[in-house]
Each structure stands twice: as C-alpha cells, then as structure tokens.
Amino acid sequence: MPTVITGKASQVSFGPGLPVVIIGERINPTGRKQLSSQLQAGNLDILEKEAVRQKLAGAQILDINVGAANVDENVMLPRAVNTALEATGLPLCIDSANEKAIASALNEYPYKALINSVTGEEKSLASILPLAKRYNAAIIGLTVDDNGIPSEAPKRIEIASKILDRAEKLGIPREDVVIDCLAMAASADSTSALVTLDVIRSVTKDLQLSTTVGISNISFGMPERQRINISFLAMCIEAGLSAAIVDPTDQDLIYAALASSFLTGKDAYAERFLTYYREKHTPALL
Ligand code: THG
C-alpha cells in the first residue's frame, strides 16, 4: 500500500514502485534572514510567496518549518500551515522539534498530514507516535537513536524496524511510516552517500516502507552544491527513494527527478516527464 497524504486541493501517493515525489524545503528559516525576521514579526508574506513559488516549480508536498529564535512555534506553526494550505491546497509536511507545536498545527489541519519527525529515541517515540495515531497522520521516522546517527547501514535499518514496530503497536498502519534514511555531509565522510543508498535499498525492498531523504545535506561544505545534489538525487531514485526533500525552484533538479523516475521504469510512456516538459514549453494563455 502506498503512503497517501492529503491537502485542501490535492492528494499525493508515494512508496516502493511509485515515481519519486518532491517535498519542497524552502519554508524553513535556517540560513534565511528575511524569512526569519518576518516570522519573528508574525508576518507570513514571504512564507505565502514561497509556498506558491514552490508549487509552481513542481513541489507536490510542502515542508513547513518555522523554527527560529524568538518565534513562538505554538502560534506560528498553525498559522503557517493555514497560510500554505489556503495559498496552494497542497498536502503539508509539518516539520518541528516541538511536540506541542506539532499538535497545534495538526489540530488546524483537517486532512491527512505528514509529521516531520519521530526518531528511534524513547522520548520521541513516546510523545510523537501517539500524535500520529490521534490525528491519523503519516510520520517520518529518522534513523537516529539515543546514540546519535549510526554511520553504518545495518544499525539505521534496525532503527527503522524499531520505529515501524512501535508504530504498529499503536495501530498506525505501515504505509503511514516513512523512513528518513539520512544523508550526512560527504565532505566529512567518503562513505556517507553509499551508506544512505544501502539504507534506501534495504528499507524499500526488505521492509517495503516508503523512504525520504533531505538531499542537500550530502553537499554541505562543498562548492557547486546544487550540482552535487542533482547527482545524489539520481542515485537515490535508482535505489528506490519514495520522496525527496529538496529545493524545487531548481529546474535542473526537477528534471533530474523526472528523468530518473522515467529511466527506472516508474513513469510509463514518460507521461509525467512529457507533461512537465509541455507545461514549460507552452506559452501562458493570458
Ligand atoms: N530530513 C527531514 N527533514 C528535514 C531535513 C532532513 N528538514 C530540514 C532539512 N533537512 C531540509 N530542509 C532544508 C532547508 C533549507 C536548507 C537545507 C535543507 C538550506 N538553506 C539555505 C542555507 O542554509 O544556506 C538557504 C537557502 C536559501 O536562502 O535559498 O540549505 O534531512 N526529515
């Protein structure tokens, strides 16, 4: 069964065997001064513009993160969710380290959300999984536990199984569990990308779960980051990645996602690829 999440106007399905879906990452104040200062002032103008811009660029899901100094996430996360939902109708991925803020946002979201995220740590499992159950949300499970991020694949896969097991014990169906296989800076560890690819393959094939990766983490500390991100995205898609967290405003990256889904036999008759191509090459009617 695929993972299905829903917004005000659209629904998205993803999982093993389906084409990769794009989760837009730009609603996140990390490294973005203007967005941070607007959020501190309670202003959602840039956020709304970024939501629309990412949708037009090809994002199918929007990640919503308003975590910054002097921002009350309990107030701003639900407001941001409402704004993005009204502006785009897209399904949302609610991204916060603050469980109360996640609950407040879910309370304002009358569709099926994706929670970002739970970890394999006991405290996280105990607080976040019940929220997913209560609000009938899907959940991203990070392959991290009390000992940090394992540098080897088998340990990450073990954490993925543990998160699945705990979710199922609460009555959360397996298709609502999306495993973040985690990308770490390749500049710091030359095995980093290969480990992520191993985890994607195993979680997809052996556990039959949906997967996600924050692609841009791979290129920290390097020049030409977007070019590295595109290469890594193509590899992740070959390994079976279900959902990519990326900056969708890079058209080359969207084309890489479409081309890789097509080349791996997940886009029959190149329908998606050609639909995107035609949209880009059709002059606006007005
Ligand atoms: N897994 C999951 N969730 C995640 C991540 C992940 N959420 C956050 C992050 N990783 C993915 N989102 C971002 C958001 C912004 C940036 C990178 C990843 C980023 N920002 C630029 C900077 O910091 O310099 C600024 C961008 C701009 O101004 O255009 O790079 O791995 N589950």
- The ordered string of helix (H) and strand (E) elements is EEEHHEHEHEHEHEHEHEHH
How many whole angstroms does the radius of gyration measure?
A: 18 Å
Shape descriptor reads globular
Q: On the 0-100 scale, what is the average pLDDT? A: 97
How much of the polypeptide forms β-strand, as a percent range?
Answer: 15-25%
Overall structural class, as computed from helix and strand content, comes to alpha/beta
Distance between the termini: 41 Å
What does the largest sheet look like? Answer: 8 strands, parallel, barrel
Widest sheet: strand ordering: 3-4-5-6-7-8-9-10
Q: Tell me the number of helical segments per DSSP (H or I, 4 or more residues long).
A: 10
Query: Count the strands?
Result: 10
Low-confidence stretches: none
Q: What is bound: which ligands?
A: (6S)-5,6,7,8-tetrahydrofolate
- Helix percent reads 40-55%
Describe this structure in words.
By secondary structure, this protein is an alpha/beta fold. Helix content is 45%, strand content 16%. The chain has ten helices and ten strands. The strands form two sheets. An eight-stranded parallel β-barrel has the order 3-4-5-6-7-8-9-10, surrounded by seven helices. A two-stranded antiparallel ribbon has the order 1-2. Strand 1 and strand 2 form a beta hairpin. Helix 2 crosses helix 3 (73-88) and helix 8 (225-239) runs parallel beside helix 9. The mean pLDDT is 97.
